[in-house]
Amino acid sequence: MTAAVLQPCPGCGALYPPSDGPTHRYLGASAGCFALFSWYMVGNPDASGMLAESRIPPMAAAVPPAEPSLDMLIGDAYGVQHHGEESPQAIQSVAVHFLDLHGVITGQTKTPGWAINRALRTKGVFHKLAPPSQGNALTIRHLFPGGGVSAPITRSQYVRSVYDTWMALHGTTVALWYERYVAQD
């Protein structure tokens, strides 16, 4: 039996076997990556079959210190990292999830989801943010041993890695968006 050639997820760069499974309408995740994330969120990452056959990207992203208070933002981090294409829904999705990360991580709110609801009050105001190079941030695959991972990371380390990597490119824009579309009444 020949092993399948692994293909990079267009969002995070983690390597997965080819799959014709479902994907999200405007998240830019491969079917394999989306399957692993979806099953992880319901508590059974092995059910997708992708865990044993997948690998992390070849570049080594820095691992930030653990911050338990960020665990609940894993969906926001995944939404930002898997940025999708040019559709208005994909652009808005990245923006509002990024704003949610920003609000909680900077201490401007303690309530995950609050910034999303505030930012969604005005449609069509966000523009596409260029993603960082693949391999600069940790991936959902880094949460599990094997596949190139010697020490699995925590949810919070994943969240922080995605946030820090995207903020390095778009910090000024996100701070402006937060002030304009979230903080203001």
Give a verbal description of the structure.
This protein has 185 residues and is mainly alpha-helical. The chain has one domain (7-183). The chain contains five helices and two strands; from the N terminus they run ββααααα. It has helices spanning 31-41, 74-81, 88-105, 114-119, 155-183, and strands at residues 7-8, 15-16. The chain has a two-stranded antiparallel ribbon with strand order 1-2. The longest helix has 29 residues, at 155-183. The radius of gyration is 16 Å and the shape is globular.
Distance between the amino and carboxyl termini: 61 Å
Number of strands: 2
Broad structural category? mainly alpha
Question: How are strands sequenced across the largest beta sheet?
Answer: 1-2
Radius of gyration: 16 Å
Estimate the helix proportion, in percent. Answer: 25-40%
Overall pLDDT metric: 91
- The number of domains: 1
Q: Strand-residue fraction?
A: under 5%
Number of helices: 5
How does the overall form come out from the CA principal axes?
Answer: globular
Biggest beta-sheet profile:
2 strands, antiparallel
Unreliable stretches, pLDDT < 50, 5 or more residues? none
Topology order in helix (H) and strand (E) letters? EEHHHHH
